[in-house]
Amino acid sequence: MTRERRLAQVFVLLADTLVDEFDLVDFLGVLAEASVELLTIDAAGLMLADDHGLLHVMASSDDQAELLELVELQHDEGPCLECFRTGQPVIDADITRWPELSAVATAGGYQSAHALPLRLRGQVIGVMNLYRSDAAPLDPDDAALGQALADMATIGLLHEREMRGYVELAGQLQHALDSRVQIEQAKGMLAGRAGLSTTDAFAAMRAYARRTGQGLTVVAHGVLEGSLQTSALLAH
């Protein structure tokens, strides 16, 4: 598949939020993985804000990216916090400005971090972080495309909330956070059963979800309750 065709496919996925079984965690996971696929970056992570303006880690392309997201929140420093507070992209900033993040990122093989707002006009609902294994500047075309992906996801999310009548963002976020807990538990359980790394276990779960047209949370629940056999997950 050409890059252009894949990009068109991703934009359709990000716009189609009104499916019956909309899964917020899966939706943001698609955005994180597509960003790594389409941009010259090595990892991506997504955070959303609750009704009180507090950010929560919602999805990441891999475990290392998730760790970096958590470090930013724990130490209240990093490009994502700056991006969320200002509503502006943080691109090509010196990562050593944030000592705690810099130390963990360098240990994990990353030399630069960038952040793009999930925003619509003046409303900022979250942040997308982009990580690279080198310190070279982020290509302006990549930055523009990354922002376009973030903008499309924001429009889709806000439209989904409006159409489904979400009065409080907290309820939607709490459901998504509960889903993340289930997914993490299922990922660990599958890794133990099949002798896989947690990264490979997650990839198997996501691949199965896509093959069968199910949400990732549904697949995770099947793993946890034992109704989804390991052999079925690893069949392909």
What this model shows, in words?
- With 236 residues, the protein is α+β, with helices and mostly antiparallel strands.
- The protein has 2 domains: 3-166, Beta-Lactamase, CATH 3.30.450; 178-233, Winged helix-like DNA-binding domain superfamily/Winged helix DNA-binding domain (Arc Repressor Mutant, subunit A, Orthogonal Bundle).
- Helix content is 58%, strand content 14%.
- It has 10 helices and 4 strands.
- A hairpin with a 5-residue loop joins strand 1 and strand 2 (55-60).
- Helix 1 (3-15) packs antiparallel against helix 2 (24-38) and helix 1 runs parallel beside helix 6 (140-164).
- The protein is globular and about 45 Å long.
- The model has no long low-confidence stretch (mean pLDDT 86).
